[in-house]
Design goal:
alpha/beta; 372 residues; seven-stranded mixed sheet; elongated; Conserved hypothetical protein from pyrococcus furiosus pfu- 392566-001, ParB domain; 4 domains
């Protein structure tokens, strides 16, 4: 990597960092280089630019968006103590007097929100498009936590960038391993790239949820392989669930989301209730007729017993479980029902269907256990 030289930009009447970098620069190395300068030396390199003369990097809003809570917090800090540090910009080659932000988009937005008319900036000249692209990604990826959706959008951006570099016969990109190159550019582990890419196949509301840092996106990955009809059904279930936890000021639970997925996959709305339905029907067991209760208890005991035998047998033989998750989950829930005397998966209107499902599960377990 070529050595960076610092000089004054006499033509524009402002200070600048004049770069002669031949390959992509490291954002972290540049940060360290600036930090080694004395406060006086740093100040000599900073220019005070008009807020209105700055423009965001072309892909920034689409890929990383804006964290409104963080912007408000930073704006309050600026109002109290002023603007600390400096953002990184480059002259806009197509608009004289305008600058493109490389690093510091959120601080720029916070300064605008705080009513500032100017902002301190390091002005970089003569950077290659490759250098600017890498520095823009690094400044976002290394300085703030990206949401799963932002990572997905960043992967798409990196794919486009790689294709563009290959089209101009860039030797650093020809014959490269696609996923290794994406990982190198984005700092996203290679093993995580394919998982993030599945977000592109999510239904609209599910995709919107993945824009939140607190949403357990790994739990919804199986939705990407559903049919379009199932995706639409899952979107409805997820929205009902999210509306409920938002009212309760709660956070999404991955196990509950997995339960919603299995409900949609099974195609049997009576077999699995959403967390919202479950919450509203805690007393459903007590409302059943005594005869129905006994039928239900007996089916639940048989299912629990058969599943326990299956689990012990598999453990004894050191074999992996081959029973499907529907049966496993139902058996676990039956155990909970018997211990707590609550029917979490039973609707008073569908007791017969629920018992029938348990009996079908018992038959499958007997087959696994070699009874049939």
């Amino acid at each position: 990597m070529a050595r960076r030289m610092v000089s004054s930009d006499h033509s524009s009447g402002s200070n600048s960092i004049n770069s002669v970098v031949q390959k992509a620069a490291s954002f972290r190395e540049e940060q360290e280089r600036i930090s080694r300068l004395s406060p006086e030396e740093q100040q000599n390199l900073v220019s005070e630019l008009s807020i209105e003369s700055l423009e965001p990097f072309s892909e920034n809003e689409d890929v990383f968006g804006a964290n409104e809570d963080q912007i408000r917090e930073t704006a309050r800090s600026i109002e109290k103590t002023g603007f600390w540090g400096a953002i990184w910009v480059m002259p806009d080659p197509e608009n004289t007097g305008k600058y493109i932000i490389i690093a510091g988009h959120q601080r720029w937005m916070a300064a605008k929100k705080a009513g500032k008319t100017t902002i301190p900036a390091f002005i970089y000249h003569d950077l290659t498009p490759e250098t600017v692209y890498r520095m823009w990604i690094d400044s976002n990826q290394l300085q703030r936590k990206s949401t799963p959706y932002a990572k997905y959008k960043l992967i798409l951006s990196a794919r486009r960038h790689i294709l563009e570099r290959q089209n101009v016969d860039d030797p650093d990109y020809l014959n490269c391993n696609l996923y290794e190159k994406i990982s190198e550019i984005t700092h996203i582990p290679k093993a995580s790239i394919s998982r993030c890419e599945r977000l592109g196949k999510m239904p609209p509301y599910t995709k919107e949820c993945c824009k939140s840092e607190s949403f357990p996106y790994l739990s919804v990955l199986p939705v990407a392989k559903m049919s379009e009809v199932q995706k639409e059904a899952f979107d409805v279930e997820l929205k009902n669930y999210m509306d409920q936890i938002n009212r309760d000021d709660d956070i999404p639970d991955s196990d509950q989301i997995k339960l919603l997925i299995r409900k949609v996959q099974s195609g049997n709305s009576d077999a699995f209730e959403s967390p919202v339905q479950k919450k509203n029907k805690k007393s459903s067991y007590s409302s059943l007729p005594e005869e129905a209760k006994e039928l239900y208890r007996q089916a639940a005991r048989n299912l629990e017993s058969e599943y326990d035998q299956y689990a012990v047998e598999k453990q004894h033989k050191h074999e992996e479980s081959c029973v499907d998750n529907t049966i496993k989950d139902l058996a676990i829930q039956m155990n909970y029902c018997l211990e707590n005397k609550k029917a979490i998966v039973v609707d008073p209107k569908s007791i017969t269907a629920s018992i029938q499902m348990m009996e079908d599960c018992i038959k499958k377990l007997k087959k696994y256990n070699g009874v049939y």
